[in-house]
Amino acid sequence: MDKTVFKNILQILIILIFNSFLAQQNPKKLTETTIIKDTISKKDTIVVQKESLDDVLDTKADDQRRDIPKRMIYLNRNAQVKYQDMQIDADYISIDEEKNVIYARGKQDSLDRIIEPVIVTQAGKKYETNNFNYNYKTKQAIAYNARTEESQGIIVAEKTKKYNDSVFFMRRGLFTTDDYFIKKKDSLADYHLLAPHIKMVKGKNSSSLITGPVQMYIEQVPTPLIMPFAILPFSEKRSAGILIPSFGEREDVGFFLNGIGYYQPIGEHFDLKVLADIYTKGSWNLRPEMNYLKKYRYSGNFSADIGNTVRGIKGLDNYSKTGTYRIAWRHSQDAKANPFLTFSASVDVTSQTFYNNTVNNNYIMDQSVLRTQQNSTLSLTKRFLKLPATITGTASYSQNFATGLADLRLPQMNVAINQFYLFGSKTGVRTGLLENITVNTGLNLTNFVSTEEGELFTKAMWDKLQTGIKNNITLGTNTTIAKYFTFSLGANIDNALTTKTLTKIYDPIENLVVDQVNKKVAGYSTFSTTASLQTQLYGMLNFRKGASIEAIRHMMTPSIGFTYSPDFGGEGFGYFRNYYDANGALTPYSIFDNGIVGAPTSGMVGALGFNIGNNVEMKIKSKSDSTGVKKIKIFESLNLSGSYNFAAKTHPWSVISVNGQSSFFDNKLSVNTSLTLDPYKILYIPGEEEGIRTENFGHFSVQGFNVQLSYPLSSELFGEKKDYAKEYKQKGEIRNENYYFDDDNYAHFDQAWTLNVNANYAYSRGATRTSNKIASIGLDGSIKLTPYWNITGSTHYDMVTKDLAYTRIGFSRDQRSFTINFNWVPFGQYKVYDFFIGIKANILSDALKYKDRSFTSPNPPF
C-alpha cells in the first residue's frame, strides 16, 4: 500500500516538473494538451504534445473530407483556406497537419491542363499560380507558373520560391508592363524581359527585382538588347537604372550604340546620368550629366561631351582622328525665391570643330550641326525696394566657328534708372510738353576682347582687352495739337570713355593700311535732337448692297520728323584724324573706330524724315461667322520711309525703304516683305564690279528685296473635323489599334496630318554690278498612317544651287506599352539612321529608362 501511494506521488511530481520545464521554455505560447487515459491501467496517465497553429485555420469547400489517421484534410471544388493574412482559393486543397503544409491546385480540364488558377491573396497582394505549396510553420512556399502583379507590371515565372514575406526567388521569369496582358485581354505580351533567375525583394513602401542576364523580347521575338543584370524598382521615388540606347549606322563612322548608360539619383537634390556613344570604326563619346533642384529656389544641370571621332582607315590618306569636347551649364532661379536678386546661367563651351565632328547623333537630328556660332552668358541682377534702379552684371562668351574667333565680355555691368518725369503735375493729370518730359538714363561698363581660342587668358588676350564706359540720357515729351496731331520732342546724349584708341597708318612697303592700337584713355560726347508730328487718317470704300465685298477700310498713319546733330568730325572735337591712302588722298577716320563704345558720327545732320504707315482691311460676307460679316487683312502693315538731309553736301536723299506684313486664309499664310530703293543713278564702268553713285536723282533702282512666306497646312483646313464616336456606332480593334466601323464594316479613324511650308527669296545688289540671290523652300510635316503609326519629316531645297539641304525622315510606332522610333538623314554630310525602342511604364523610366523622370517628374520627391 505504501509502495502504491509512493508510486502515484512520484508520477504526479514527474508530470508537474515536466510541465513546469515546458512552461519555462516557451512561457508565452499556448499549447493544446490532450490527456489520454490508459484503458488497461486507470492509474497511469500519458501526456501527448500536439503541433500547434499560430492562428485559427478556417476552411470551406463543396466537398470536405478528413483523414484522422494520416492527419490530412481534403477540400474539393470551390475550396478556400484562410490563415492569418493569407487566403487561398482553388479547385483542390489538401492540408497536411503533420508536415504543416498546404497544397493547392487550380481547376483542370479533361487533359489535366489548368484552366482556372489558384488565387492567393496576402497582405492585399494577389498572386495566381497553377499549383502551390505553403508551409504555415516556416512561412515558406513554392509556386509553379506563378503570376504576380507589382505596381504597373507583372511577373510570370516557371517556379517561384518564397523564403519569407520579403524575399522571393524565381526561375525563368518574364516581366512586362503590357496592360492588355496584365488585364488578360491578350494571352501574349507585346514585349517582355526574360531572365533565367530573378530575386524579388519586397519592402514596406517599395519593392525591386534583381535579375541575372536579361533579354528583351518584342512580340515574342528575341532582340539583341541583352544586359548582364537589371534592377527594376517598384517605387514612385527616383531609382537608379540602365539607360536604353538607340542603335543604327552612320556613313562616316560606322554602326553605333547611341546613349547607352546609367542613371543614379544622389540624395534628394541631385541625380547623375552617364551616357556613352560607341561606334564600330573606333569613335566614342562620353556624356556625363548632373541635374540639381532645390524646390522653390533654383534648378539646373551640368553636362559634357568628351570623345574622339575616327574617320577612314588607319594607314590610308583618308584616316583622321579628332578629339572633341563640350561643357555646358544651365541654371535658373525660381521667380519666387528672391525677387530682388536673381542669377541665371547658360554656358556652352565647345571645341572649334565640335559640331563638325560630333558623334552624338542628337545634334544631327535637331540640326545643331548647322550652327555657326555659340553663346554663353552668366547674369546677376540686383533690384531695390526703395531705389529706382536695377543693376545687372553679366559675363558672356561667344564662339564663331567660321572665323575661329572668340568674343569675351568679362565683366559687363549695366545700371539702369527707372524712367521718371522731370517735372511734377500740378493738377494730377499731365498735360503740355513740360509736364510730360520723361528721362531715361543708365550707365554701362564693358570689358571686351576678340581673340583666338588658344589665346584665352594669356598675355596676348590681356593686351587686346578693351575697357569702356558709356552713359546715355534720353529726354522725351509729347502733347496733342488741334485734337488730331501728336507732337513729340526728344533729345539724346551719349557720353563714352575707353582705354584704347586707334591710329591708322599707310605702310607703302607692305601696301596696306596698318591699324595701330594705343593704350590711351579717351572719351567723347555726342547729342542729337528730334521733333516729330504724327496723326491718323481713315478712309472707307463701301460697295453696293448685296455685293460679296461690303467695304474696304484704309487707315494711314503719316509722320514727319526733323533730326539735328552737329558735325562731330570737326577739328575742334578731336574725335577724327586723317591719313594718306595708297593714292595719296587724305582719308578721315575716327580714333574710336573698332572700339567697344562705338564712334561718333561725322558730318552735320539736319534731316527731315518721313514715314507713312498703312493698314488695309476688307469686309466680306461669311456664312460661317455669327455676325454674317468677316474681316480680312489685306495689309496688316505697309510702311514707306526715307529722309532728306539738308546739311549733306552730296546725296541728301537716303535710301527709300518699304516694309510690309500681312496674313491670309484665316491668318494661316504669313507674308513678310521688304524693299530698298536707291533714288540715285549708279554708273558702271566696263570691267569694274563696283559702280559709281551719281547725283542724278529719280532712277530708284532696286538695291534689295526680300519676301518670306509661311503656311501651316493641316487636315482640318480641308474639311470639318469628324466626331467618329457619334458618326459611327461600332468601335473595335484591329491588331490592338482602335477604329470606328461603318455599316459596311469599313474601318475609319482621324487621319490627321500637318505640313508647314516656308519659302524665302532674297535679292541684294547695292552698288555692285552682280547681284546676290537666295531662294529656298522648306517643308516640315507629319502624317498618321494609322492611329499608332506616325511619319514625320523635314527638308530644305535651295532653288539657286538646286540642291537638297538638310533632310530628315522619322517613323514612330506607338505600341500598347512601348514605342519604336526610327530617324533617317539620307542626304548631306551626315548620313545616319537611328533606331530606338522605349518602354512607357513609369516604373521602368529609371531602371530601363525610356524617358528621364528624375527631377522633371510631375511630382518630384521634395
Automatic annotation (TrEMBL):
Domain LPS-assembly protein LptD central: 210-680
PANTHER family: LPS-ASSEMBLY PROTEIN (PTHR30189), LPS-ASSEMBLY PROTEIN LPTD (PTHR30189:SF1)
Record protein name field: LPS assembly protein LptD
Species per Swiss-Prot/TrEMBL record: Chryseobacterium kimseyorum
